[in-house]
Design brief:
The structure holds two protein chains of two kinds. By secondary structure, chain A is an alpha/beta fold. Chain A has eight helices and ten strands. Classes of the chains: A alpha/beta, B mainly alpha.
Chain lengths: 243, 214
């Protein structure tokens, strides 16, 4: 089963500037606990999936990619920019969507929240209005623009969280388990949204069907990449491993 | 539960700048306490209601919803004045407070949070000489309005979970799981603020806030 409609716009997507993320000898500890070890890899593909058991380090890995977590050892570079020293530039290029949209929506109403990131970037009011209008229309939230974000459904909240990131026009978007809290209908909806993105994406997920058609899938195990390759093989390897 | 009280309607009151509305509200508050004529206070209340329900085209339910929580206090206040002073004074006091609450309801129902926050940030601008960042104050206000209902919802979930396991009333120790949830939420929220650029130096305020969302 495929949840997302595979976009026919791969050619159009290829016109966008690609982001290259390089991790070199990366390790990360939380106190005594090592969560990531010996990571050296390069991500240049359009769609990269990340799977692994709970506690395998995949969410920490995702947070490395836009500097939410700075590695204890090694370096992470986005288009050559070091996440340790050029954080602001890195975050302009790499957006991040969290598992729980309630933790990501910071303003009381839909349009105000969508505008938040643009205000932080210092975008002019007219341009902010244009981008907010566009992104809310694209995700079916235009009719809710003055509604309290708190009263949206789970799927709408996740769409708003995605809209709040995309409105900032990042080149790559990292999704950390974006469908974990959603029902099947909303999972399909979010899968379709991810599928249609022209930006490069990294998707951390437990929903393996979401990864059909991806260019590359990484399997995390005990803080290391245990498998890395095309989705068909790596997902099959992961499922066998978990059985 | 929601603390966002904005009612999206196109009206001249909605288009009036937030600073002017807040200034008029403050002036009204002062003026109402300088007069004690029943006709003047009653007339003011009527004018405020006319402004809200007429000019601002607010549904009467939205004004009533904001006035309703103060009714018990107004009744108590009136009873107090019946005992201590007289019915005339009690009526004036109650109508005065009612007019103020209704006026505040009209302001909040016709003004977006971002516009109100922009006024607060403008008022806080002199504090920059002490190292205070007005944009941070504005963000705190907006996040308070956003997260109070969310925390209330999480508390309700914990109460429901307790009730499902036989607890008949909310127990003090239920605050512990709530606290844990709130701290986790705060942790992720901090990351989300970073990810959405809130750690960047905020540009000097930027035209009429909320203008872009009209």
């Amino acid at each position: 089963m495929r949840w997302g409609r595979r976009s026919a716009d791969v050619a159009a997507a290829a016109d966008l500037p690609r982001t290259a993320i390089e991790l070199r000898d990366v390790a990360h500890d939380y106190g005594e606990r090592a969560v990531l070890r010996d990571l050296t890899l390069s991500l240049a593909e359009h769609r990269v999936g990340v799977v692994g058991a709970n506690g395998s380090g995949k969410s920490t890995f995702a947070r490395l990619l836009n500097g939410l977590v700075v590695p204890t050892a090694g370096t992470v570079r986005v288009d050559g920019l070091d996440t340790r020293t050029q954080l602001r530039e890195v975050r302009r290029r790499v957006g991040f969507v969290f598992q729980d949209p309630d933790a990501q929506i910071v303003h009381p109403t839909v349009a105000e929240d969508a505008e938040f990131g643009l205000t932080n970037l210092g975008i002019a009011p007219e341009e902010r209005a244009r981008r907010v209008d566009e992104v809310l229309t694209r995700y079916g939230l235009a009719g809710h623009r003055d509604h309290p974000a708190h009263l949206l459904s789970g799927g709408q909240k996740q769409l708003l969280a995605i809209a709040g990131v995309l409105v900032m026009e990042p080149r790559r978007v990292v999704f950390d388990e974006p469908t974990t809290l959603l029902d099947l209908t909303n999972t399909r909806r979010i899968a379709r949204v991810i599928d249609e993105l022209e930006q490069d994406v990294v998707v951390v997920t437990h929903h393996l069907d979401l990864l059909a058609g991806f260019d590359r899938v990484l399997v995390f195990e005990d803080g290391r990449v245990a498998a890395d390759g095309a989705p068909a093989e790596t997902v099959r390897w992961y499922v066998d491993r978990m059985s | 539960m929601t603390l966002s009280l904005y009612v999206p309607v196109a009206s001249p009151v909605h288009r009036t700048p937030a600073g002017l509305k807040l200034g008029l509200l403050a002036a009204l508050a002062v003026a109402l306490f300088l007069v004690d004529g029943l006709a003047v206070v009653g007339g003011t209340l009527a004018a405020v209601l006319l402004l809200g329900l007429g000019a601002a085209r607010l549904p009467w339910r939205s004004v009533l919803a904001q006035v309703r929580p103060v009714w018990p206090w107004l009744v108590l206040l009136f009873a107090f004045h019946l005992v201590v002073t007289d019915w005339h004074t009690g009526t004036v006091v109650v109508l005065r407070l009612l007019a103020l609450v209704a006026a505040a309801a009209v302001v909040t129902a016709t003004t977006r949070v971002t516009e109100l926050v922009a006024v607060v940030e403008w008022l806080a601008r002199p504090l920059t000489v002490f190292g205070v960042r007005p944009a941070r104050i504005g963000l705190v206000i907006a996040m308070t309005l956003r997260f109070v209902p969310l925390v209330a919802e999480r508390a309700q979930r914990i109460r429901d979970a307790q009730a499902a396991r036989g607890a008949e009333r909310f127990r003090f120790r239920s605050l512990v799981p709530l606290l844990v949830q709130v701290l986790r939420l705060a942790d992720t929220l901090g990351e989300a603020l970073d990810a959405r650029g809130a750690d960047a130096p905020v540009p000097v305020r930027r035209g009429r806030a909320g203008a872009s969302t009209s």
